[in-house]
Design the sequence.
């Protein structure tokens, strides 16, 4: 079971016990700001104890601002292993969005949307018991969730038959190729909203398909995507239109092409050349 997203602020150092085993495909996401006078910030995945050196570190990740490096390592049996290093493209005073995703043979580490390292497992990631943030930073957001999504992936809306007004879908997506799409589906199989980023055209195509026939395309608006760069995407069912927000910026509006948008969207489907890291959809409060 993953933890729902929470906004802080949280005290640093911050340590929390994982309430269930870390599963393949899950991501730990941490957001905040680096202190203006920062020397270092570290993230630890621990087992056996809630702090070093009593614990073992399945993953130790450290931002070192004095020499501009990210250092990754593991600590087992009282001994540090061999360091792995990357350049740190983050400065004191910057905002950070750190995501550590557990995959079958490695952790994928992303910083502000960019993959910075694949760290091969030295200890099974399922043995993780705590995660921790220490050092010269603030911590304003913590989230732990996700899974491996095999595309095409289709789902209805949990515990409800449709997508009511105010419903949001939040997803974290990493484009891998020239195009991918997210479709809202009707009960009869029509595509009531087709959202299709196309890298070869630098456009996001919006449309609908009813009785096998496509409607008029809409293409206006910016194209904020880069291949291999992660983006937070929010899609909101408003009373008169669908709103699309990418990384906090509204990039498009699609006027409903159905009579009852609070009842007619019964599920959604994702397909194409994209890696979906996390999907969260919640009933409006």
Sequence:
């Amino acid at each position: 079971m993953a933890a729902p997203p929470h906004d802080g602020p949280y005290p640093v150092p911050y340590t929390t016990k994982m309430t269930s085993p870390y599963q393949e495909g899950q991501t730990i996401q941490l957001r905040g700001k680096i202190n203006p006078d920062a020397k270092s910030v570290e993230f630890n995945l621990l087992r056996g104890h809630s702090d070093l050196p009593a614990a073992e570190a399945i993953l130790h990740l450290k931002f070192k601002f004095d020499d501009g490096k990210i250092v990754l390592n593991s600590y087992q049996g009282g001994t540090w292993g061999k360091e792995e290093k990357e350049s740190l493209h983050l400065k004191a005073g910057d905002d950070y969005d750190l995501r550590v995703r557990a995959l079958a043979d490695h952790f994928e580490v992303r910083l502000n949307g960019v993959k910075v390292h694949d760290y091969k497992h030295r200890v099974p990631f399922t043995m993780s018991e705590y995660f921790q943030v220490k050092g010269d930073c603030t911590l304003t957001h913590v989230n732990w969730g996700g899974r491996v999504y095999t595309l095409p992936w289709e789902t209805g809306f949990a515990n409800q038959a449709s997508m009511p007004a105010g419903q949001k879908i939040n997803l974290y997506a990493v484009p891998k190729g020239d195009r991918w799409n997210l479709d809202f589906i009707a009960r009869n199989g029509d595509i009531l909203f087709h959202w299709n980023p196309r890298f070869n055209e630098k456009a996001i195509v919006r449309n609908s398909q009813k009785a096998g026939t496509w409607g008029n395309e809409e293409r206006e608006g910016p194209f904020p995507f880069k291949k291999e760069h992660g983006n937070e995407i929010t899609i909101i069912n408003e009373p008169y239109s669908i709103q699309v927000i990418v990384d906090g910026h509204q990039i498009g509006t699609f006027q409903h092409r159905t009579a009852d948008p609070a009842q007619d969207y019964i599920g959604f489907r994702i397909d194409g050349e994209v890696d979906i890291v996390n999907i969260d959809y919640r009933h409006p409060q």
Observations:
- The mean pLDDT is 94.
- The domain at 3-145 is CATH 2.60.120.200 (Jelly Rolls).
